[in-house]
Design the sequence.
C-alpha cells in the first residue's frame, strides 16, 4: 500500500466515524421525539419546569433576593443539564447497546460521544432560546463583551463531560454499581455548584475556612460562574452584602477555568485510556 | 499457497462461567478470592485461510464456531494467541444488528452502512441496489418495527453484502428467509467467490457447506477436529453427532488377503487425476486391487458405488465374474462413465467385493472426494443406473 492510499484510507475512516456519530445522534433524537406532536419542543419543557419550580421556591418562598432569578438560574442550569445529562446517558451507552457491541465491529469510542452529542444538541437549542427570550424581555445586559467567556467555559465543560463520560461508560460495563453511584453524585453535584443560589453565599463560608480555591477544583464550579458572568452578567449586590457574580472582571474566570481545563484534560486522558483498555472485553462482559 | 487472508495462531478463548462472573462491586470484593470455574470456548486453534477460499465452519452446538468467528472479526479478544486478517472484514453475525425499530428502512440502511464502515456518499451510490436486492422498495419509508422477520433479514443481508468486504464472515443467518431469498443470498455468495473474496461460513446445513465450500473445518469443544475436504468434515460431524451409518466390515479383508491401493478420479480411462468435473464430463475411477490366492477364488463380483455426503448412494456400477481375472496378483480395476449424471456436489466412491452368494468380502472407501459442477441439484431421481463400462487389466 502506498503512503497516499493509507492517508486516503485513514481520511475515509475518520469521515465514516464522523458520519456515524452524526447518524447515531440523529437516531437518538428521532427516536426520542418519534410520534410526539410537539416533538423537539419537549426538550424545552424540562428547563421550563425547573424554572417555574425553582423560581417559586427561591423567589417567593425562600426569597434569596436575586433579581430576575429565572435568567440567573438558567445561566448556570443549562450547562449543568448538558453535563449531567451527558454523563447519565453515557453511563448506559455501552450497556444499552449490547446488541450492537456483541454483534458488529465498529469504533466503540463512538458510544459515549453519542451521549454527549445528543445532550449538546439540546443545550445549544436551549441556550439560543434563553438568549432570545432575554432580549425579547429587555434583559439587554446579556449582550456584553463577557459573552466571550462562553468559549473557554464551554470548552472546559465539554472536555470534562467527555472525559467523565468515557470513564463511567467503561466502568459501568464491569461494575453495574457505577450507574447508581453516578446518579447520586450528579444529584449532589447539582447542589454543590452555585446554580440555584449565588456563589457569594458560598464563598463567604469558604473564605473563612480558606477553602475558596479548593471549591474550584470542581471544574463545573468554574464553568458555572463563568456562564453566569457571560449570560446573566449583572453583578447585583444582595441585601446580605454578597455579590451575585463571583467577580465583576474577566481574569478571575480565566484562572478558574485554567485550573478546570488542566483537571479536565487529566480526566479526559484517564477516561479515554480506561475506556480503550476495557473496550477490548466489552463484547464478552455484556 | 496463495496470499494469506486470515491467520490464527494458537488462539484460545476462555470465558468465566456466567454465574461466576462478578458484575457488581460487592460481588467483586466479596468473591475476590474464589477461583471462578473457567470454560474454554477455543483451545489452541491455528488456521490459515488463503485469499479467495470459501471455508465452512461446522460443529455441534457449543463447539466454538461463533466464538471463532467473533475472534476473527475482532469483536472478542483472544485469551491467548494472535489473529491477523488482511483486508476489510464484514461480519454477518446477526442480520439487522443495529437496526432500530422506530426508524424507517431508508434510515436504517444509512445507519447500518455507516456502522459497517461506509461513508454517506458510498451509501448513496449503493442505495438503489440495496433496496432492490432486499425487494423492499414499497416499504422502505415504513418503520422497520412493522417489518416481518423475513423483510428484516432481507434488509440486513442486503446492506451487509453491499459493503464490499475483502473477507466476509457469516454466522448461521441464511437459514432465515424464504427459499427464494436464500437462493438470492447464495447467488451473491457465488458472486463473491468469483470476485476472489474470502468467505468464512458457519452453517448446520451439511448440504450447504458441501455445496459452496472448498474446505471445511470441524470444531469440537473448541478444538479443530478436522480441516480439509468438506465431504469428510461433514462425515466427521455426523460421526460426532451419532447420525452416521455404522460400519459393519473392517477395511481389510478378514485374512488380510485383499489390499487396496491408490484411487484415481479422472475424466478418461487411465487419465490424470481430476478434482472438479464440469457438467456432462466423462468420469473414470480406478483403484489398485491386490488379491491373495484364496480371495481370488472367492471373489465373484465387484461393485463401485458413488456416494454423496452422509453416504447417500447416487449410482452403482457392478462388474461381473466374467470381467474379473480370477487369479491372485495386483490389478487395476477401472470404471468409466461416458457422461456424468446431472448431479452437483462432492462425492466419494466405495468399492465393494462380493462372493458368489452376495456376501461382502471387504470394501474400500476413498479418502478424498471429487466435485461435480452443475446447475442441477441432487434429486432423488438421479439415483439410478448410469451407463458405464468396466474392465480389468494387469497392473
Sequence:
Amino acid at each position: 500500500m502506498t503512503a497516499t492510499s493509507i492517508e486516503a484510507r485513514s481520511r475515509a475512516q475518520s469521515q465514516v466515524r464522523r458520519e456515524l456519530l452524526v447518524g447515531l445522534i440523529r437516531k437518538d433524537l428521532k427516536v426520542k421525539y418519534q410520534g410526539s406532536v410537539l416533538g423537539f419542543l419537549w426538550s424545552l419543557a424540562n428547563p421550563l419546569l425547573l424554572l417555574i419550580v425553582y423560581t417559586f421556591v427561591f423567589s417567593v418562598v425562600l426569597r434569596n433576593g436575586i433579581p430576575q432569578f429565572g435568567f440567573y438560574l438558567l445561566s448556570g442550569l443549562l450547562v449543568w443539564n448538558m453535563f449531567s445529562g451527558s454523563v447519565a446517558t453515557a453511563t448506559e451507552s455501552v450497556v444499552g447497546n449490547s446488541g450492537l457491541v456483541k454483534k458488529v465491529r465498529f469504533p466503540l469510542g463512538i458510544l459515549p460521544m453519542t451521549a454527549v452529542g445528543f445532550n449538546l444538541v439540546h443545550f445549544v437549542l436551549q441556550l439560543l432560546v434563553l438568549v432570545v427570550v432575554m432580549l425579547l424581555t429587555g434583559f439587554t445586559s446579556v449582550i456584553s463583551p463577557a459573552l466571550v467567556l462562553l468559549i473557554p467555559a464551554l470548552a472546559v465543560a465539554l472536555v470534562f463531560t467527555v472525559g467523565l463520560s468515557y470513564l463511567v461508560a467503561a466502568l459501568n460495563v464491569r461494575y453495574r454499581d457505577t450507574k447508581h453511584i453516578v446518579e447520586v453524585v450528579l444529584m449532589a453535584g447539582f447542589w454543590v455548584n452555585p446554580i440555584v443560589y449565588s456563589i457569594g453565599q458560598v464563598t463567604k463560608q469558604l473564605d473563612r475556612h480558606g477553602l475558596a480555591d479548593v471549591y474550584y477544583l470542581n471544574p463545573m464550579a468554574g464553568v458555572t460562574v463563568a456562564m453566569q458572568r457571560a449570560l446573566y452578567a449583572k453583578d447585583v449586590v444582595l441585601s446580605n452584602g454578597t455579590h451575585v457574580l463571583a467577580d465583576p472582571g474577566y481574569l478571575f474566570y480565566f484562572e478558574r477555568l485554567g485550573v478546570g481545563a488542566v483537571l479536565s484534560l487529566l480526566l479526559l486522558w484517564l477516561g479515554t485510556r480506561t475506556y480503550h483498555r476495557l473496550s477490548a472485553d466489552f463484547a464478552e462482559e455484556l | 499457497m496463495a496470499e494469506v487472508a486470515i491467520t490464527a495462531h494458537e488462539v484460545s478463548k476462555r470465558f468465566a462461567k456466567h454465574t461466576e462472573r462478578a458484575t457488581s462491586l460487592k460481588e467483586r470484593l466479596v468473591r475476590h478470592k474464589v477461583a471462578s470455574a473457567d470454560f474454554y470456548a477455543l483451545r489452541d486453534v491455528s488456521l490459515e485461510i488463503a485469499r479467495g477460499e470459501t471455508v465452512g465452519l461446522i460443529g455441534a452446538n457449543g463447539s466454538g464456531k461463533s466464538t471463532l468467528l467473533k475472534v476473527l472479526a475482532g469483536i472478542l479478544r483472544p485469551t491467548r494467541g494472535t489473529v491477523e486478517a488482511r483486508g476489510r472484514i464484514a461480519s454477518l453475525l446477526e442480520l439487522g444488528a443495529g437496526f432500530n425499530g422506530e426508524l424507517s428502512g431508508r434510515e436504517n440502511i444509512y445507519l447500518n452502512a455507516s456502522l459497517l464502515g461506509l461513508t454517506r456518499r458510498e451509501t448513496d451510490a449503493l442505495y438503489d441496489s440495496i433496496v432492490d436486492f432486499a425487494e423492499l422498495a414499497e416499504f422502505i419509508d415504513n418503520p422497520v418495527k412493522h417489518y416481518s422477520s423475513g423483510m428484516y433479514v432481507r434488509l440486513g443481508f442486503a446492506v451487509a453484502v453491499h459493503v464490499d468486504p475483502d473477507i466476509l464472515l457469516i454466522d448461521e443467518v441464511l437459514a432465515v428467509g424464504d427459499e427464494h431469498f436464500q437462493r438470492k443470498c447464495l447467488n451473491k455468495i457465488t458472486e463473491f467467490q468469483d470476485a476472489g473474496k474470502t468467505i468464512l461460513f458457519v452453517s448446520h446445513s451439511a448440504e450447504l457447506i458441501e455445496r459452496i465450500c472448498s474446505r471445511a473445518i470441524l470444531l469440537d469443544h473448541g478444538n479443530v477436529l478436522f480441516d480439509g475436504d468438506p465431504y469428510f468434515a461433514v462425515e466427521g460431524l455426523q460421526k460426532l453427532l451419532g447420525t452416521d451409518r455404522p460400519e459393519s466390515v473392517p477395511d481389510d479383508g478378514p485374512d488380510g488377503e485383499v489390499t487396496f491401493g491408490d484411487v484415481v478420479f479422472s475424466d478418461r480411462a487411465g487419465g490424470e487425476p481430476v478434482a472438479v468435473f464440469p457438467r456432462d464430463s466423462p468420469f473414470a475411477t480406478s483403484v489398485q486391487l491386490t488379491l491373495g490366492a484364496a480371495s481370488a477364488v472367492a471373489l465373484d463380483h465387484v461393485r463401485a458405488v458413488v456416494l454423496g455426503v452422509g453416504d447417500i448412494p447416487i449410482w452403482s456400477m457392478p462388474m461381473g465374474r466374467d470381467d474379473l481375472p480370477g487369479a491372485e496378483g495386483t490389478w487395476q480395476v477401472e470404471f468409466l462413465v461416458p457422461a456424468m449424471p446431472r448431479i452437483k456436489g462432492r462425492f466419494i466412491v466405495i468399492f465393494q467385493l462380493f462372493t458368489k452368494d452376495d456376501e461382502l468380502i471387504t470394501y474400500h472407501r476413498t479418502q478424498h472426494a471429487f466435485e461435480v459442477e452443475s446447475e442441477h441439484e441432487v434429486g432423488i431421481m438421479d439415483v439410478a443406473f448410469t451407463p458405464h463400462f468396466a474392465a480389468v487389466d494387469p497392473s
Summary: Chain B touches chain A through 32 residues (CB under 8 Å). The CA atoms of residues 57 and 193 of chain B lie 17 Å apart. DSSP finds nine helices and 19 strands in chain B.
